[in-house]
Design a protein that fits this description.
With 127 residues, this protein is mostly helical. Helix content is 75%, strand content 0%. It has a domain of 54 residues. It is found in: Membrane.
């Protein structure tokens, strides 16, 4: 691909099958990227909505502007570094949650006895 100076993965397909087929085969990845980006913004907006107590659409707009801003400033490197930072935060926060999950009364029978009693009544707490 480098020897032929292809820019995208669609370039060899377009070269082999023509422009019309290349355009038709480009539609599914385009739709998938649009839905993926919408899902990421919606989940980030929902998180910001809970943490900052703001409207959902405002949180999504702020998230989109932030992503566009740091991508324009740093390019692909900023996106890669953001992913690394997210993985670090996810790993740390999951390890921080473990003691709270173990000490929760709802998990007492699971962690403190050798066998789990299936007939136990389910825990229904309050949110």
């Amino acid at each position: 691909m480098r020897r032929r100076n292809y820019v995208t993965l669609m370039d060899p397909i377009q070269e082999m099958y023509g422009n019309v087929m290349g355009c038709l085969l480009f539609i599914p990845p385009l739709i998938a990227d649009i839905f993926w980006f919408a899902a990421v913004l919606a989940s980030l907006g929902a998180t910001m909505k809970v943490i900052l107590d703001i409207q959902g659409y405002v949180a999504i707009i702020i998230s989109a502007c932030t992503v566009i801003f740091y991508t324009l400033l740093g390019g692909l490197y900023s996106v890669a570094y953001t992913d690394v930072v997210q993985l670090i935060f996810i790993s740390l926060s999951l390890w921080i949650c473990i003691p709270f999950a173990i000490m929760n009364p709802a998990t007492e029978n699971i962690f403190h006895t050798a066998s789990y009693n299936i007939s136990q009544t389910p825990w229904t707490g309050k949110i």
